[in-house]
Write a structure and sequence with these properties.
The structure holds 2 protein chains of 2 kinds.
Chain A lengths: L1 H8 L7 H11 L1 H22 L1 E2 L18 H20 L5 H13 L3 E7 L30 E8 L8 E9 L6 H17 L8 E8 L4 H13 L15 H6 L11 E3 L7 E10 L9 E5 L10 H14 L3 E4 L3 H4 L2 H20 L9 H20 L6 H5 L4 E8 L6 H24 L11 E5 L2 E4 H12 L1 H24 L7 H11 L2 H25 L7 H22 L3 H8 L3 H23 L1 H17 L3 H7 L2 H16 L2 H13 L6 H13 L3 H21 L4
Parallel strand pairs in A: 2-6, 4-5, 4-7, 7-10, 8-9
Antiparallel strand pairs in A: 1-12, 2-3, 3-5, 8-10, 11-12
Helix pairs in contact in A: 2-16, 3-12, 3-15, 3-16, 4-5, 4-6, 4-14, 6-14, 9-14, 11-12, 12-22, 15-22, 16-21, 18-19, 18-21, 18-27, 19-26, 21-22, 21-27, 22-24, 22-27, 23-24
Chain B lengths: L1 H29 L7 E10 L5 E11 L14 H10 L1 E10 L4 H4 L4 H6 L4 E8 L3 H19 L12 E2 L12 E6 L6 H9 L15 H5 L3 E11 L9 E12 L3 H6 L11 E2 H5 L12 E8 L1 H18 L14 E3 L5 E4 L11 E6 L12 E4 L12 E8 L5 E10 L4 H7 L6 E10 L3 E12 L2 E3 L1 H4 E7 L8 E10 L4 E10 L15 E3 L3 E9 L13 H7 L2 E6 L3 E3 L8 H25 L2 H13 L4 H14 L10 H29 L1
Parallel strand pairs in B: 1-10
Antiparallel strand pairs in B: 1-2, 2-8, 3-4, 3-7, 4-6, 5-6, 7-8, 9-14, 10-13, 11-14, 12-13, 15-16, 16-22, 17-21, 17-24, 18-19, 18-22, 20-21, 23-26, 24-25
Classes of the chains: A alpha/beta, B alpha+beta.
Chain lengths: ~725, ~675
């Protein structure tokens, strides 16, 4: 205290401006946090307005510069295959062998190299430490039987004058056992393109056509093939031998009586490094008014293919083939009136700005805004979920750019329209392959981090980062101000009580102890995070329990979690009780440390999966900032504290992960179908896909929620 | 003087021409005692099983060792002889290749694929006749010379990271060998033209007239090769004798427009072709400077066997004995010209079905009656080419930018079983496989991680590998070389070698312009020293006249090249240097700024300065600023001297003025727009 007195006599030395600014921000942290959070949310809603038009960044792609070569002859060929496939389905459908044979025969007749790839679907299992590791070659299971295998048919065209270093993959999922007409049609499109590509001279990369056996799911087949392609096993220790199964042997009785250089072998065939992959699907029922093509791009953990790939497809589909391109939207947002009014506000604002300076052209119509927001929301949602939206996700695990194209034709597929869709779809695929074939380097020019607001509009990382940065910016300031507050207020109290004359070593000692006081709350936060880690590991053990319904698993999980929290709490010396005894303002310190840990967690997550961090920040930042013991607010009894109580209670419910899940599910599907087991299923799907979102929920969000709740019910 | 000079020049030219002409005639005809320079041109045509046609041009010119010629040659290209003399090249081979040799359908056992199937891009190897320490310097000069000679970027082989010195696995094994490849070199007509310039008739006469550029480059594979061997020693004052062998191997698809039309019906009939339909040209006589000028048509063993089979069936079914005895009018195909000679392979060792060679002499044809060979297939024929005992393929494993693995997989081809039985009467029959693999330094191979799988069972390295020689790569100095001799059991059906590597980082200026394409690992060479590709033809009285046939007779080990691999490495963002410079500069500025600040500052002086400043009458703007900064500091504003009333007055005035001007500006803007 004497020092401060001395200081007041002298003129204070100048503090560096940057430090001064920091102190200023910390001291006005309330205002800053309100401003930052609102502007962060606002910036998020402004994203559709700020979206830029896509453009083709890599000049080598040159989409649409060559006129399509796919002629009616190829379409007829494709049609022939479709007919044969549908006929064979009628004839013998007990096994899919027959249709595999037909496809292989067709490929052989074109002069392609054909091979079958037998695989067993791998069970998705929870590997606690496999979240970010590259895919491995998979475990060998002993108990394979003949009944549970799939057969991928692979045809490869070698580029006539190419050096075979690179390849383009075309995937058509096909379920031989119960194939819809759409699947047969997608094979027809692929075949017509394939038959064209055997004749052209411009190929520089090899073409691989993979007919993925989708009876165990499209993703499983594609990923099994990729695993064999990239990380093959040379030693076969498993007892299973495919030659023991009679109907597989049946498969190899294809007669190769074609002269045109076609080769059939039962060994796995490869081409070079994959440059890009296209997954082609045709939807069975088309009810739209136009022929549309939907693009699915999200791979695991929010990874996206290079934007140029989407651009090429979009450009060719819209400007060359007259197809409508569609990107996934959240349908429920399309009809929301508040969004529409928000769009109108933005529109009118843009009009005003335009009258001021005609160069300001950032306005978009309200309807477009609503659509853009719906697309953006679904883009964010699927990226945040971290689960791939189609078989293309398997390619992204091997750093191959891939997208899924789903064609939904206009009318029910009668013969008149079938040829049309074969021609247009085929020409689209041909164009995309030709563009990728032109590439000298791999895709690298355009964006990898982006959100789509429409097929031709995107928000790049530089823009959407702003919203997130604004959201999390107040966190360190609030943490600092709380820490300073807690320290100085206690200092002040102590200082008042002690007479100025009694400046002893004891007081000095007290100050040092007090300045280390935050360690206590840090310990609490650490324990809760440790508990979070334990909770996220628990499902690994729970799923070992045989014959467990999702609901019971979920209940076991909850019980075990609570139990572990209690045990941890008691073992590590019951920090909450200790806190209560020592300090009144302890909750502020706990809040300060919590906020810092959340800041770190969100920052880390934004690097791994931005969308998850963004959505997490939307929920957690207000909750952390508002958390204050309910007792204090009740005692205060002002309007402001009432508001805060309400906000706290609402946020405290929403931020609990299961509650948030059920709320979201209820909003999307209606509350009637909600079931406790659903959450377990959802979590199971998250870890099966190695989604980092699962880790985020378990190790950042859940501990944060627990800490906030503990602050709310703090007894001060 | 100027007027005089021109006729003189002309006269001189005329005279020298005359003289030269007589000298050539004299040299080639009259000097019978001494060996002379000679030139042979030959063309081999061979139908391939997958409807394609192999055309193999073979030109050979040789210069005998002599001192009489001095620096002059009659036929032999001077550039080459100078190159041989200067760099003391003992043997050299340079090949430019586009496309891949399809070992499965075009065969891998004959002498054509094993010596003419080359990896894509440029391959160069040379054996020097100089002491060890001079070899590298010679190699560097040689690459530069060749790159100038052939308009190619062979000079990139100069850097020590690009070439290697195999010890024993490369077939012409010798310590003085240097080997380098450029897998990414684009091969085009600009490389062919200098190659043709080495021929005495260029492409103006003789067989080389057929070399029509569009049709060559339309082909599925073409490889132009230049092989030279120098014989004799250059030490005794004699110039070394040189044999220059130039081959061009092209695989073409005859009349593709007809093929697409005939798709539905006669899918299995081989397309008929003629020289004029393939190349769009005909041969009008031989190159006058050539000793011989022949066109051969080769039907390989599989095809001959198939034809015999077909004929037998025909005879059985139709009971026709009318099939004439002369071989060239076969029931299954027809030739337009009568072959001058038919060679049948000596079926000594392996097969009951010798291959047949038809010889056509171009000499007999002239401008008015050009030579054109038409082959018309009558019935569908399906056969298989002879394959190497194991089919080698190589691929990359793993993903990501950190590490990966190279795998070489060897699969047995069914057709080889016959040879194995024939070649080995031993109980423990073993198949020897040599593997030669060069990896660039930025692919850091861990040689200890070499694994061998035989028939899907992991084998100890010591069991299967008889001999291994490894020279690890040095960063930015030399590539890694691996030479292996594998001993596999003859009954092997598949074998695999895997070896792991880490991907290295390059310095930013070591990246090529298209760094994002990835980096190439050159082809590995897999050779089978126990198997020799040779064809010995009967009636070989005229053999000494045909270098092509004598080439066939040579026992060369069966060789095959694997695919070139593309490894994606981490590439920096190439705008990064700019960012780095910006950030570093900022950091430096901050650091030095604060350091200077701290050094310069004295506490007492600062206080005095503050007092001084307080004493001074401050202007409006600094006053405002100080007020603002005081606010920032969170203290009460205490303007030192001026009265608070006046300052607030000033303040409000200023604010009013600012607002007024801003309002005016907005109005003005609004009004005028």
């Amino acid at each position: 205290m004497a020092e401060t007195k001395e200081k007041s006599h002298k003129p204070k030395p100048r503090v560096r401006p940057i430090v001064r600014l920091g102190i200023f921000l910390v001291s006005h942290s309330f205002l800053v946090s309100v401003v930052c959070c609102t502007s962060g949310v606002l910036a998020l809603f402004l994203l559709p307005v700020l979206a830029k038009n896509t453009y083709i960044s890599e000049n080598a792609l040159m989409p649409g510069s060559a006129s399509p070569m796919l002629s009616n002859q190829h379409v007829l060929d494709g049609n022939r295959l479709v007919k044969d496939l549908t006929n064979s389905n009628l004839k013998s459908s007990e096994t899919g062998i027959e249709s595999h044979k037909i496809i292989a025969q067709y490929m052989l007749d074109l002069g392609a190299e054909v091979s079958f790839h037998k695989f067993h679907p791998q069970m998705n299992q929870f590997h606690p430490l496999h979240f970010f590791s590259s895919p491995d070659s998979g475990k060998i299971q002993e108990n394979y039987s003949c009944s549970s295998y799939g057969i991928n048919t692979v045809g490869i065209i070698r580029a006539p004058r190419g050096d075979g270093k690179e390849a383009i993959v075309l995937v058509t999922p096909y379920n031989a056992l119960k194939s819809g007409f759409g699947e047969a049609l997608s094979l027809g499109i692929a075949y017509s393109v394939f038959s064209l590509l055997t004749q052209v001279t411009w190929l520089a990369k090899d073409i691989i056509w993979l007919v993925a056996d989708s009876q165990f799911g499209e993703y499983a087949a594609v990923s099994a093939w990729l695993r064999e392609y990239q990380t093959p096993k040379f030693s076969s220790l498993s007892t299973f031998n495919s030659e023991m199964c009679p109907d597989i042997n049946n498969l190899f009785e294809i007669k190769v009586h074609s002269v045109a250089g076609s080769k059939f072998s039962n060994s796995f065939r490869r081409a070079g490094t994959m440059a890009a992959a296209l997954v082609l699907k045709v939807r069975d029922q088309g009810e739209q008014f136009e022929d549309t093509i939907s693009i699915y791009a999200e791979a695991s953990n929010g990874q996206m293919p290079n934007l140029d790939l989407i651009n090429v497809v979009n450009y060719l589909a819209v400007h060359r083939q007259g197809l409508r391109v569609n990107v996934e939207k959240l349908r429920s947002l399309l009809n929301s009136s508040w969004l529409k009014s928000l769009g109108e506000i933005f529109e009118s604002l843009a009009k005003v700005a335009k009258t001021l300076n005609p160069k300001y052209k950032f306005g978009i119509p309200a309807t477009e805004y609503v659509e853009g927001t719906a697309t953006l929301a679904s883009s964010l949602y699927y990226q945040a979920l971290g689960v791939p939206t189609g078989p293309h996700g398997a390619f992204r695990d091997y750093q191959v750019d891939a997208i899924t194209l789903e064609i939904s034709p206009k009318f029910s597929l009668d013969k008149v329209w079938r040829n049309d869709i074969l021609l247009r779809g085929g020409r689209l695929i041909e164009g995309v392959i030709r563009s990728v074939n032109n590439l000298l380097e791999k895709f690298h020019q355009s964006f990898f981090l982006y959100l789509l607001t429409s097929p031709s509009k995107f928000v790049s990382v530089g823009v959407y980062m702003i919203a997130f940065a604004l959201l999390i910016a107040p966190l360190p300031m609030v943490a600092a101000s709380l820490y300073v507050d807690a320290n100085s207020s206690s200092n002040f109290l102590k200082g008042d009580s002690s007479t100025p004359s009694a400046i002893t070593d004891a007081a000095e000692h007290g100050i040092t102890i007090r300045s280390w006081k935050w360690l206590n709350s840090a310990k609490l936060v650490f324990i809760v995070h440790l508990w979070g880690a334990i909770v996220s590991l628990l499902p690994y053990f729970i799923c070992q329990i045989p014959d467990c319904s999702p609901t019971t698993s979920f209940v076991i999980w909850v019980l075990l979690s609570i139990l572990s929290l209690v045990i941890l709490n008691s073992v590590l010396a019951s920090p909450l009780a200790c806190v209560k005894a020592s300090q009144e303002k302890e909750w502020a310190l706990v809040k300060s440390v919590t906020i810092s840990s959340v800041f770190i967690g969100l920052g880390l997550m934004s690097v791994i999966n931005f969308a998850t961090a963004e959505i997490g920040a939307l929920v957690m930042v207000p909750m952390c900032l508002l958390a204050q013991p309910l007792k204090l607010d009740v005692r205060a009894g002002t309007l402001r504290s009432c508001c805060r109580i309400i906000c706290n209670l609402v946020l405290g419910h929403i931020a609990f992960p299961p509650a948030a899940f059920f709320l979201l599910k209820g909003m999307l599907d209606g509350f009637g179908s909600a079931n406790v087991g659903d959450f377990w299923m959802w979590v199971e799907s998250l870890w099966a896909w190695n989604s980092a979102t699962y880790l985020f929920i378990g190790m950042v969000q859940l501990p944060c929620w627990v800490l906030c709740v503990s602050i709310l019910f703090h007894s001060c | 003087m100027a007027l005089l000079r021109r006729p003189l020049l002309l006269l001189l030219l005329l005279l020298t021409h005359q003289f030269l002409h007589s000298w050539i005639v004299f040299g080639s005809v009259n000097e019978e005692g001494q060996k002379q320079e000679d030139f042979f041109e030959e063309l081999l045509l061979k139908p391939l099983p997958d409807r394609k046609l192999l055309t193999h041009f073979h030109f050979q010119s040789s210069a005998p060792p002599s001192s009489s010629n001095g620096r002059h040659h009659h036929l032999f290209p001077k550039a080459i002889s100078q190159l041989v003399q200067k760099f003391r090249v003992k043997e050299m081979e340079l090949s430019f290749t586009q496309g891949r040799w399809n070992y499965e359908s075009w065969g891998g056992f004959d002498s054509i694929p094993s010596s003419n199937a080359k990896p894509p891009g440029v391959e160069l190897w040379a054996v020097f006749d100089v002491p060890q320490h001079l070899i590298d310097a010679m190699w560097k000069n040689l690459t530069h010379t060749l790159s100038g000679l052939f308009c190619a970027s062979i000079n990139f082989l100069e850097s020590s990271t690009a070439y290697s010195a195999p010890e024993w696995s490369f077939p012409p094994a010798s310590g003085n060998l240097r080997y380098g490849t450029l897998p990414r070199e684009a091969v085009c007509t600009e490389n062919l033209t200098p190659w043709l310039k080495l021929l005495p008739c260029r492409d103006k006469a003789g067989i080389s007239m057929l070399l029509d550029r569009p049709s060559i480059y339309r082909g599925f594979y073409h490889s132009q090769r230049l092989h030279l061997t120098s014989t004799g020693s250059g030490s005794e004052g004699l110039d070394p004798g040189i044999i220059l062998e130039q081959t061009l191997t092209v695989v073409l698809l005859p009349n593709s427009q007809r093929a697409s039309l005939a798709r539905a019906g006669e899918k299995h009939v081989q397309p008929s072709w003629s020289l004029s339909s393939i190349f769009g040209k005909e041969v009008s006589g031989k190159c006058v400077l050539a000793e011989t000028s022949n066109v051969y048509l080769l039907l390989d063993r599989g095809l001959v066997a198939e034809l015999k089979q077909l004929r037998k069936e025909n005879e059985k079914s139709a009971e026709k004995v009318s099939t004439s005895e002369n071989n060239w009018t076969n029931p299954s195909f027809e030739l337009s010209a009568k072959p001058d000679r038919i060679f049948i392979e000596e079926s000594s060792l392996l097969s009951k079905n010798p291959s047949i060679l038809y010889k056509f002499e171009v000499e007999k044809y002239s401008e008015s009656e050009p030579f054109d060979l038409v082959l018309t297939w009558k019935i569908p024929v399906v056969w298989l080419c002879q394959q190497a005992p194991l089919h080698a393929s190589r691929f990359l494993m793993g993903s990501g930018n950190e590490r990966g693995a190279i795998a070489i997989s060897l699969k047995s081809t069914q057709s080889s079983e016959g040879f194995v039985g024939a070649n080995f009467d031993d109980e423990r029959c073993e198949l020897q496989v040599d593997v030669f693999q060069v990896v660039p330094w930025y692919v850091k191979v861990y040689f200890h991680s070499l694994q061998v799988f035989v028939d899907q069972q992991p084998k100890a390295v010591s069991d299967t590998i008889e001999k291994i020689h490894v020279s690890p790569s040095k960063d930015k100095e030399s590539p890694g070389v691996m030479e292996l001799v594998l001993k596999l059991p003859c009954s092997v059906s598949s074998a695999a070698l895997t070896i792991e590597f880490d991907k290295g980082f390059l310095h930013i200026d070591e990246y090529p312009p298209d760094a994002n394409q990835g980096f190439d690992i050159p082809s590995a060479i897999v050779s089978f020293p126990n198997f020799h590709a040779s064809m010995v033809f009967l009636e070989n009285d005229s053999l000494n006249q045909s270098p092509l046939l004598s080439k066939f007779q040579e026992k060369s080990p069966v060789m095959s090249y694997t695919e070139v691999l593309l490894v994606p490495l981490t590439t920096p963002d190439f705008s990064m240097p700019y960012n780095v410079i910006t950030i570093t500069c900022t950091v430096f500025a901050l650091y030095f700024g604060s350091l200077l600040n701290a050094l310069r500052r004295r506490v007492a002086e600062e206080e005095r300065f503050l007092k001084d400043k307080a004493a001074k009458k401050t202007g409006r703007l600094p006053l405002l600023l100080s007020k603002l900064s005081a606010k920032l500091r969170g203290r009460q504003s205490e303007p030192p001297h001026s009265t608070p009333g006046s300052s607030s007055l000033v303040n409000s005035k200023l604010v009013f003025k600012v607002i007024l001007i801003a309002g005016l500006a907005v109005c003005w803007q609004y009004y005028f727009s």
